[in-house]
């Protein structure tokens, strides 16, 4: 008998369905305009229709699908402009959080450095290094930065982007090597801790030219995005 309670099991199943569908939309596996059928999805994922229905409702709330009057669910997807808007907001929020960090008289950077060290340990595994794990740990570096600002409003606004940001990092992890991924985050953290004068440029390089553009370029190469 499973040690998990039935409600927790249902919650985990629903989360898996949601994560899978969101991933398929962001990678273009599920195309814009494609219709999603609960029965077909439940059979493909070997789950009941309940978790599928809840996942589709959440995706509708995120603007990735639309439920039409006839009850059919259509993929809206995510456009280049959507990604631009998400990263513009992310840039504003992270710049503000880092600015707050820089203006503190006493700042404990230990949580940020600890998260970077976890990323380094995963990188040091070499061939055993897992891209998905690197992506998750890279995301954790940003979580630590945002939390260290101590501004709950900024952190909560940033967290509202987390589901898509985490997936983009995971997708990017398939196209960059672990050394590059670690160095990109190390450059950012070093600039923050050292209060480098070019910090703003480093932030923009890390988020826009590195993270956002890798995602957009690879999807266009693979024919998943038309813009």
Structure, explained:
This is HTH gntR-type domain-containing protein. Keywords: DNA-binding, Transcription, Transcription regulation. Residues 11-78 form the HTH gntR-type domain. GO terms for molecular function: DNA binding; DNA-binding transcription factor activity. The chain is mostly helical and 227 residues long. It has 2 domains: 6-75, Arc Repressor Mutant, subunit A (Orthogonal Bundle); 80-224, Four Helix Bundle (Hemerythrin (Met), subunit A). It contains 10 helices and 3 strands; from the N terminus they run αβααββααααααα. It has helices at 6-26, 38-45, 49-61, 80-102, 110-123, 131-148, 152-159, 162-172, 178-193, 199-221; strands spanning 35-36, 65-67, 73-75. Strands 1-3-2 form a 3-stranded antiparallel sheet. Strand 2 (65-67) and strand 3 form a beta hairpin. The chain is elongated and about 60 Å long.
């Amino acid at each position: 008998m499973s040690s998990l309670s039935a409600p927790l099991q249902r919650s985990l199943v629903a989360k898996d369905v949601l994560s899978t569908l969101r991933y398929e939309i962001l990678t273009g596996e599920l195309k814009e305009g494609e219709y999603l059928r609960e029965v077909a999805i439940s059979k493909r994922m070997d789950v009941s229709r309940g978790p599928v229905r809840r996942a589709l409702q959440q995706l509708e709330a995120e603007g990735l699908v639309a439920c039409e009057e006839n009850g059919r669910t259509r993929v809206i997807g995510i456009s280049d402009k959507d990604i631009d808007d998400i990263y513009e907001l992310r840039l504003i929020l992270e710049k503000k959080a880092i600015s707050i960090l820089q203006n503190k008289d006493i700042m404990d950077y230990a949580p940020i450095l600890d998260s970077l060290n976890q990323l380094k340990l995963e990188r040091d595994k070499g061939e055993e290094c897992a891209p998905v794990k690197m992506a998750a740990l890279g995301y954790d570096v940003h979580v630590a930065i945002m939390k260290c600002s101590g501004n709950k409003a900024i952190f909560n606004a940033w967290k509202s982007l987390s589901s898509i940001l985490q997936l983009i990092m995971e997708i990017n992890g398939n196209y960059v090597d672990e050394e590059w991924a670690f160095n990109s985050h190390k450059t950012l953290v070093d600039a923050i801790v050292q209060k480098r004068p070019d910090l703003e440029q480093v932030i923009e390089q890390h988020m826009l030219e590195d993270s956002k553009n890798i995602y957009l370029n690879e999807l266009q190469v693979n024919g998943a995005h038309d813009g």
